[in-house]
Design brief:
Arc Repressor Mutant, subunit A; 39% helix; OmpR/PhoB-type domain-containing protein; two-stranded antiparallel sheet; OmpR/PhoB-type_DNA-bd; alpha+beta
């Protein structure tokens, strides 16, 4: 699990001088490419990757 701040630092570097919203935009783009259920958002904590998400019928 990675927080927004951790993703900003690891992906864009500690000198990044933009807005944190860029993480949300990239998560949306990755969900479109990987499939909606591979990237999970844990409210108030961050995001995590799930390589083998459960299908809707398994939930």
């Amino acid at each position: 699990m990675f927080s927004r701040e951790e993703l900003l630092e690891h992906v864009w570097g500690p000198q990044f001088d933009g807005v944190e919203r860029v993480v949300d935009v990239m998560v949306v783009a990755l969900r479109k490419k990987l499939g909606r259920n591979h990237l999970e958002t844990v409210r108030g904590t961050g995001h995590r990757f799930n390589p083998s998400p459960a299908t809707e019928s398994e939930r």
